[in-house]
Amino acid sequence: MLTGSCNSCVGIANEELNQRILELLGRDKPSIGYIPSCSDTERKYFEHTVRYYNQLGIENIHYYDLDLEYDPSTFEQILAADAIHLSGGNTFYFLHLLQKRNVVGLLRSYVQEGGMLIGVSAGSIITTPTIEIAGYGKDADENHVALQDKHALGLVDFEFAPHWDGEEDSLDLLRSYADTIGAEVYACQDGGGIVIDGKVIELYGDVRLINPRRRGI
Fold first, then answer.
1. Distance CA 109, CA 155 (A)
2. Cα-atom radius of gyration of the chain, to the nearest Å?
3. CA–CA dist 106, 117 (Å, integer)
4. pLDDT, tens digit, for every residue of 110-158?
């Protein structure tokens, strides 16, 4: 599984990480199932992602909409893909769609059965236990759907903050958040990411681990 911070909403601009993705896919002609955070009717952001994967030699990328173009008769075909890509966007609306279409359990099972999940930006937050962090800080997503249940896929036991600007002040804010929730937080600059391979956590690019302070110390 890959949790990453995006670069211009495209993917991961890190050669070492790109090669690791290909290694994990482990096939000459892998297939990617792309889930947008909301309908991309003109395929603007999808085409950016297609170009990214094309640069890696991957041509078989398919778009699966959960929003305006949702087709339940074809969506489950995504589970046959070698990897599923969760896009960037508004994290609250994305989770709302996953819940509305009853896809949360499908994605969990997909990963548990050996499927590869690639989360970028909002999609990276979706892989964690909760999307609470998406509403935190100066560049927070707006919860315009009034989402109450913020529990996400829970594929990892930490939280993830994409788009870290590299500033210590930003880390201080995330430390306050980590202290409040009592969980570890990884802050990641654009172009970086985390690969979870079994129980092994691999860091790529500028990624910082923030540990919560122990209570009573």
1. 10
2. 16
3. 12
4. 999 999 999 999 999 999 999 999 999 888 999 999 999 999 999 999 9
Is the Cβ–Cβ distance between 186 and 160 less than 8 Å? yes
DSSP letter string, 157-208: SSEEE-S--S-HHHHHHHHHHHHHHTS-EEEE-TT-EEEEETTEEEEESSEE
Mean pLDDT of 198-210: 94
First-to-last C-alpha distance (Å) of the chain: 35
Dump pLDDT digits (tens) for 3-41: 665 433 333 458 999 999 999 999 999 999 999 999 999
Identify each DSSP E strand in the chain by its residue range.
2-4, 31-35, 60-63, 83-86, 116-120, 159-161, 185-188, 193-197, 200-204, 207-210
